[in-house]
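STRUCTURE:
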């Protein structure tokens, strides 16, 4: 099985690339979706976050006000690190569960869409890693246009993440998204060919099909060994 790591920065176009993978039939495990699930009312992640940040972050229905929590952590690096520490175990186990389900279905290529792929050291489990990159000014302008935010707020959110240049330096594949949507789709088609190439032998043995072949080989070996033992008696 090949697990492709997909990451980028805020307003870099990562979500667009993620959707392109989905539209081409490649399953995507989205860490943001997992993170929303682990913050739902009554979950372990919910209890830990409310215990650390207080009930002021709750909506009237008792769910976490994600926008308010986001404002708190983006303006305070210490609180952002605290939030990451609190939720990391729940998010990691949630991602593992989603990957396991896809493995059991026999998927050979899976994309992990993780904003903090490098920060959480999850790139150790992915190959290749794909970074969606834009230059800093383009990123700033797109974020301000998307959220209607001022320059200071936009820069604070961008600076709260590892820079795209740092991520680009650690990537196996870089998708340049400074151009138009058509340019992005053209770049994506090139990447799609790379990530859907035939599996290596190592990747094959890690797939469900490889595991079944291994199991069958063991069974045949055991049965054959018994027959040889009987024949020698």
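SEQUENCE:
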């Amino acid at each position: 099985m090949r697990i492709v790591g997909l990451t980028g920065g805020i307003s870099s176009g990562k979500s667009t690339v993620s959707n392109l993978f989905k539209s081409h039939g490649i399953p995507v495990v989205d860490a943001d979706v997992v993170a929303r699930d682990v913050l739902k009312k009554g979950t372990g992640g919910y209890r830990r976050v409310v215990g650390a940040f207080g009930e002021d972050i709750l909506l009237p229905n008792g769910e976490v006000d994600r926008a308010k929590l986001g404002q708190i952590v983006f303006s305070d690096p210490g609180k952002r690190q605290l939030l990451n520490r609190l939720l990391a175990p729940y998010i990691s186990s949630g991602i593992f569960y989603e990957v396991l389900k896809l493995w059991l279905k026999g998927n050979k290529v899976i994309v992990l869409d993780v904003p903090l792929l490098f920060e959480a050291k999850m790139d150790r489990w992915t190959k290749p890693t794909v970074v969606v990159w834009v230059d800093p000014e383009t990123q700033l302008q797109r974020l301000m246009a998307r959220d209607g935010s001022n320059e200071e707020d936009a820069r604070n959110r961008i600076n709260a993440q590892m820079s795209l240049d740092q991520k680009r330096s650690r990537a196996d594949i870089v998708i340049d998204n400074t151009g138009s949507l058509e340019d992005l789709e053209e770049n994506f088609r090139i990447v799609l060919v790379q990530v859907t190439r035939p599996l290596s032998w190592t990747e094959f043995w890690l797939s469900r099909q490889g595991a079944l072949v291994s199991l069958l080989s063991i069974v045949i070996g055991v049965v054959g060994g018994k027959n040889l033992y009987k024949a020698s008696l």
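REMARK: The beta strands are 2-7, 28-30, 109-113, 129-133, 173-176.
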